[in-house]
Specification:
120 residues, mainly beta, Jelly Rolls, 6-stranded antiparallel beta sheet, 3-stranded antiparallel beta sheet, 11 strands, 46% strand
Length: 120
């Protein structure tokens, strides 16, 4: 057993083209602990989101802080701490902070997943 306190996991910059602004990541469970899933907390600056994308595997988001938005081609939903979002493999979506708010979520996915960025 291993207890991980998310607030004690260092926030690392995550400067990838998928995001519209500043984002940090806190690696919680990686390949060093699990071969079956990856678990990370992603922290979005005010109004920052990721661009439309999809994953080759299912994704679960667990909202931990702030106000956010999760969207697909068909709908856009406001989310708050405690909400859990299931995203099917291949589903085009984006998620991030609502206007004027920061936003954090933990994601759970296969460490072998591939992300396809759709929006430039």
């Amino acid at each position: 057993m291993k207890v991980i306190r998310v607030d004690e996991v260092a926030k690392e910059p995550w400067p990838i083209k998928l995001f519209t602004g500043r984002v940090t990541v806190q690696p919680i469970i990686g390949r060093d602990l699990s071969k079956n899933f990856s678990l990370q907390q992603v922290n979005f600056g005010k109004g920052v989101r990721n661009k439309l994308h999809s994953h080759s595997t299912e994704q679960v988001l667990i909202v931990t802080e702030g106000r956010g938005i999760v969207a697909t081609d068909e709908e856009e939903v406001g989310v708050r701490p405690g909400d859990i979002i299931f995203i099917a493999a291949g589903e085009k979506h984006w998620h991030g902070a609502a206007e004027g708010s920061t936003f954090s979520h933990i994601y759970v996915m296969s460490p072998d997943q591939e992300t396809t960025q759709i929006e430039e």
